[in-house]
Amino acid sequence: MKTNLTNGDIRIGFYICHCGHNIGGVVDCTAVAHEITGLPGVVVSRDYKYMCSDPGQELIRNDIREHALNRIVVASCSPLLHEHTFRNAVEAGGLNRYFFQMVNIREHDSWVHTDHAKATTKAVALARAAVLRVRFHRALETTRVAIHPDVLVVGGGISGIHAALTLANAGKKVYLVERDPSIGGHMAKFDKTFPTLDCAACILTPKMSAVRANKNIKLWTYSEVAKVDGYVGNYTVTVRRKPRYVNEELCIGCQECIEACVFKEGKYPDEFNVGLSKRKPIYIPFPQAVPQVVVIDPERCLQLKSGRCKKTCVEACADRQAIDFTQKEEMAEIKVGNIIVATGFKLFDAKRIPQYGYGLYPNVVTSIELERLVTSSGPTGGEIIMRDGRTPQSVAFVLCVGSRDFRTNRWCSRTCCMHSMKLAQLVREHTGADVTVFYLDIRAPGKGCEEFYDKSLKDGIQFVRGRVAEVTDWALTPEEEGKLVIRAEDTLAGVVRRIPVDMIVLAVGMEPQADSQAVRRLFNMSCGSEGWFLEKHPKLAPVSTFTDGVFIAGCCQGPKDIPDSIAQAGAAAAEAMALIDRGYIEQEPNTAYVVEEDCSGCKSCLPLCPYTAITLDGTTQKATINAALCKGCGTCVAACPSGSIRQHLFEDDEIFSEIEGVLTHA
Amino acid sequence: MSKPKIAFYWCAACGGCEEAVVDLAEDILGVLDAVDIVFWPVAMDFKKSDITALPDGALFATLLNGAIRSSEQEEMAQLLRRKSQHLIAYGACACHGGVPGLANQFSREQLLRFVYEEAPTLGEDGRSRPQLESEANGHELELPRLHQAVRALDQVVPVDYYVPGCPPTPKLTQEALAMLLSSNPPPRGSVLAPDTALCDECPRKSSKPSDLSFAGFRRPHEILLDPEKCLLAQGVVCCGPGTRGGCGALCVGGNMPCSGCFGPTSRVRDQGAKLLSSLCANIAAKDEAGINLALDGIPDPLGTFYRYALPHSILQRNVSQAARAETLSL
After folding, report:
1. ipTM
2. Is A8 exposed, middle or buried (0-12, 13-18, 19+ CB in 10 A)?
3. What tens digit of pLDDT does each residue of A513-563 get?
4. Is the whole-model pTM more than 0.80?
5. Residues of chain A positioned with their CB less than 8 A from the CB of B278
6. Contact A1/B266, CB-based, under 8 Å?
7. Domains of chain A as residue ranges with CATH
8. Long-range CB contacts (within 8 A, 24+) of A302-306
9. Per residue in B3-41, pLDDT tens?
């Protein structure tokens, strides 16, 4: 092994933090400090209650001056939390900030072990490793890389819309990419919102129009992110733009083409009305759609499928010539500095619980279907009618469908209680029907929500506590004849009840999007075990992810209502702005570098770099690494077969001495 | 002034390194002009007592080839170390453990049991193990004892210089002797060969693509090899990228892939691990099934990537439970 070390006289200061009882309650910190005293090069070894406090940092600064220390090791919490703090202290003491090594004896030790003696032994091993390693640390400098000021927002639901508008209103340029032909997301389908019962469209539509009008927003609907390269401040994103067979620039949304289509009536399930109405092959998703541009469904359009159509739509469009059957999928490449992922959720498929009869009994509907029925712009013009055209006299709501159940999803979807109560009140208002709600627990913690629950009770809505066992049309009594019967245990009354009703509404819960794993990989994010995108810290960094410059907002992070989604979207926009307005990011000097005279030019490393930082020098035929592009992932370092690529902060001598330190038994 | 005294010795080796010295052919006369050979059991009639009789440090240099497997080899290595000013690990086995080092996959007990009791070629009455001590014709006979593992020379005694190769080329041998005898010898501990990987001097280097992206691996006998094109680009495992150069790319010149005999560069602790990381990182398939399919083309990974340097690697040897139990019992 080459070491080439001329580090001179190594003088190490070691500090172990009690972190109150967090570490001190399990690890014998005094014993660890004593054990480390004997290691070569250690001049000072101390334990202290709170190293991150001002006096704790002062201790390091003083010792550096008094004892001429030139290496510092602190054993405390995760480097994610305080590495920065201690590096600053080391720098304030007059040393290069990388003459420092942190040992995590909290998350990696005291918090995960109960045996005090063994936890102390482990702390000694980890501390010894750091003390052996820090001897080899070299002085390094951080570099600054400029941040691209543009932002990509993925998902045009209420979260994405709000994030995009917040950024655009602050003067930032935003690309808003939405998979569907219009923005609006789930909220656009709602009639009213709880607990205020204000009209969803009245508050959403202005925001959608604002997106259309805002010059700082580039709106790409019917588009999906295909590829993401780069890193915080400098992402290169490829967006797949699906053909809508209508020129967005030329279409003015007059919809005469829809009128003129050879299909005189709608024939295919309308996605926006969750299949409750029919649309034509050429359509506009809903009246308030943004952009106001029609779209042609290639699976249904006669011309696109067979090439044999009278093309009455083209005739209707006449001189505008907006319809273009030759459109092809396009790939667009954009550069952005930050990305906000707001890809939302999907609803639980009620067919997965067959005993509730969804798909079997026509009068079992989901909450979103009822939502469309209640809406004045919906398929029935706001009339709540059953499939046979009758108005229901009695309606039952089944809560927690797919939620809070180990057989399906364990989590609470958070909004279904309130959403169902809202629908229940609307049903009462529209039809005067008897309404019964079957619930496990009513969760109404939001502002004004408990009051809304009170109102529901006062409105005469019946609440039965118990999970519904089954829905059946097998009548046992004359009153049950022609009705759907709900069987459930009323856990408050302690009896099993059969309640006959006309219509049953299943309050389906929220689930991660079907392609959430692919999206997670695309943006290099993590997922919890349920599939929701994982925030960097559940309390302190709720909209950040483990990838710098990638933020999450809304229900892709977990179920939430509209106010919470908007709050997160605003927070994500603010986090992105904080980075943009600073203008640069400090880049850790943990970059890889090629030792030119050692490199054989074997090219093994070239294809491996995820950041395309490695190139082969044409004249020397040796690899070179662009430090500005290198993110320090270490892939090339591990793969270089002749050991000619090295990495700052992860030099072989540093790593091997660390391993030695862990494995040496005192 | 008398000429510097040189010794050649062999331990656990195949004899190829001795052959390499003989391969100097008439050039050996030049060597003999410069030095006196005082010990070379394979070629000349010297006895151990000739060496024992010398004062310590009397030999200018010993070129020792072969790994250390037995008590006798260890004793000779220590003796020659004592008597030599310079001890040179000559050849892959002395430098890194070599092919005999592959025996470190097994415990000594496993080896002895197989070779003397279980090998299918043994006749029914041939199944007996040689004893360390025995008596014949009134004489007490003694055999050297096998160690638990094969070691490289520097894992037994300090080594001054290394001349790698299986075997070292005549050119490298001559250069090494010349360097040693020069007024300005290299610093002790040096490997007397270049410290860049073989690709640097490979005649096929320019034909290597910048993205290998292995679909799979094939062994040389399975395909007709293009004599001009990079062997890795043809899907054949070539250890060149992870092997020290200096051989002049002899195997590649013979249309065979580098098998790694010069060992790793000075910057690498574990040649096999490095070769594996480098090759596997470049496998095209990204799913487990596809990766496994590609790796099926390397039926003997240990024999492929650790062929010459297992004892010197981080692995060193198999310390499975059976082998460890045996170690403890002895």
Report:
1. 0.90
2. exposed
3. 999 999 999 998 999 889 999 999 899 899 999 889 999 999 999 999 999
4. no
5. 604, 639-641
6. yes
7. 7-140 (3.40.50), 141-242+329-344+514-587 (3.50.50.60), 256-316 (no CATH), 346-511 (3.50.50.60), 588-648 (3.30.70.20)
8. A302/A262, A304/A245
9. 999 999 999 999 999 999 888 878 888 888 889 999 999
